[in-house]
Design goal:
By secondary structure, this protein is α/β, with parallel strands linked by helices. The chain has helices spanning about 5-15, 25-30, 40-55, 70-80, 110-125, 140, 145-160, 175-180, 200-205, 215-235, 250-255, 255-265, 285-289; strands at about 1-5, 20, 60, 85-90, 130-135, 160-165, 190, 210. The protein contains 13 helices and eight strands. The radius of gyration is 23 Å and the shape is globular. The two termini are about 45 Å apart.
Length: about 290
């Protein structure tokens, strides 16, 4: 399930999802930016780090097209490992990428160049459990299934840990045809944003290992904020809203305020552990602050 900050990531984990999709679209939108690498890779990694701090389940980062060449991408992979991210997904499009659902022109990168990025990532990962997912954009630009499969086998040979088959048509025919012809043990992943009427049981039967719900928290939040802002603007009151929105206590719970309160009792002057390790009491620090 998609998340774009620490708060949304924690809600995803509490709901019971097996993993978090750190969405490039959602993170850039939350910054007020377009999904075409306007947010730098360091900003994206920073957001992912907040998600990691707030959760314990696996996080797969949307790595766009690798944020540049193989050299930049291997630096990204090292940084992701340092902050505890579990994997990265990169798509075989030119940098800067364009969102697959946008109406602008989409262009694929050279397949051999993309294979180099996969190899660079695998050589740069800090943990052997780190996953590099190769995202196929061939259907997005109009390639045939045979052409998409050809690229997929190249990426598989280059060391990809999973293959994400992307499609934006309204039914699941393309991804199901791909799965039927796929002849390798490497897991397959889908993003059923547009073909959302197909039951997930169909995808399981076809051999897909994971589905990514890629942007739904972002879209839900946009609708909720628009409605709340409009209501308060028109009514000049929140009285009618209070029963429908999260109470402040729920915000504090999600922020883990209880931990801070417990820490205050332990570390601040007058708390349970008020005596200083250097002798005297912690009131000395409070006096000079």
């Amino acid at each position: 399930m998609e998340a774009h900050d620490g708060l949304s990531a924690k809600i995803v984990e509490e709901t019971g999802f097996a993993g978090i999709w750190a969405s490039g679209l959602s993170m850039s939108a939350a910054m007020g930016l377009r999904d075409c690498n306007e947010a730098s890779w360091t900003q994206v990694v920073d957001q992912a780090a907040f998600m990691r701090d707030a959760t314990s389940i696996p996080i797969l980062l949307d790595g766009d097209s690798g944020f540049g060449d193989f050299n930049i991408f291997r630096r990204v992979v090292k940084k992701l490992g340092q902050v505890g991210i579990d994997g990265v997904c990169i798509e075989d499009k030119l940098y800067p990428k364009r969102n697959s659902f946008a109406t602008c022109e989409q262009k694929l990168c050279d397949a051999d160049e993309f294979c180099g990025k996969i190899k660079a990532a695998k050589d740069s990962q800090l943990s052997e459990d780190f996953a590099v997912v190769a995202r196929l954009e061939g259907y997005i630009v109009g390639l045939s299934t045979e052409e998409v499969l050809e690229r997929a086998y190249q990426y598989n040979e280059a060391g990809a840990d999973a293959i994400l088959v992307h499609s934006k048509i309204k039914d699941a025919s393309q991804v199901l045809e791909f799965a039927k012809l796929w002849d390798a043990d490497t897991p397959l992943v889908i993003v059923p944003t547009t073909y959302n009427q197909t039951p997930t049981s169909i995808f399981e039967e076809a051999g897909f290992s994971a589905a990514i719900w890629a942007n739904h928290n972002l879209r839900t939040v946009i609708t909720a904020m628009q409605e709340t802002c409009q209501h308060i603007f028109e009514k000049q009151s929140t009285a009618e809203l209070e029963a429908e929105i999260a109470p402040i206590a729920e915000v504090f719970r999600l922020q883990n305020m209880e931990d801070s309160t417990a820490a205050e009792a332990k570390y601040l002057a007058g708390g349970e552990s008020g005596s200083s390790a250097l002798g005297g009491t912690s009131k000395t620090c409070a006096t000079h602050s």
